[in-house]
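Supplementary Methods S3. Complex input for the uracil-bound model.
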Amino acid sequence: MKQERMDKILAARTEYSRKDAKKLVWQGRVRHNGKIAVSPDAKVDLSADTLEVDGKPLVLGEHLYLMMNKPAGVLSASRDPKQPTVLDLVPAKYRRSGLFPAGRLDKDTEGFVLITDDGGFAHRILSPKKHVSKTYHALIDGPVTDQMRQGFAQGVALEDGTVCRPAGLQVLEDGPSPLCQVILTQGMYHQVKRMFLSYGRRVLHLKRVAMGGLALDPALAPGQSREISPQELSAVLEEI
Ligand code: URA
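Predicted complex, serialized as structure tokens:
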């Protein structure tokens, strides 16, 4: 049972400062276990209690794990003075201090971004030693050759001489611009694009569809996110 002061929790889990969080309570806008809260220093049990601000429930679990379907054009960074970031798209009910995207997608890449406030978990899934798989769908501008299949299976040599770990490559839809599934167990800068470029192919569209054993929820439209359940989290963790 982890207890914390109400104003501290409000400040951590909403956009309000600690000072404003106190005011919220004094203004009668906060409900604690269904009753209007009167004292900002009241203790809240994070595992059992409920808190609402202006009628909207706050997520009180110790750590938050969100799956977001990142749209193209949005940065997978925490904050940027000029451009929209994935954190700007997090629904108000999930906002809290300490959230950040665990891993990066290029600005023009869509799909699965895991957003959390659990630094330890992020460190583990991103650790180069853990090899958590990431699955991508890539539309490319020319056919997949036997040479490419072999290269992906053995480890593609990038233009700077770096040799990638073996990766999965499967054609999902054939044609002049085939749709390919690529499974990586590492995460280098522009890796999918650079791997295809080693064979003269350009990636026309890229989407991450899974991390570890957890697939992006098809019900999430670009820009939407939802909480990852503890069971689902274990599908990501199964590899680490
Ligand atoms: N590989 C890329 O080239 N870009 C991404 O965003 C992710 C993987």
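The CA atoms of residues 134 and 175 lie 24 Å apart. The chain has a mean pLDDT of 91.
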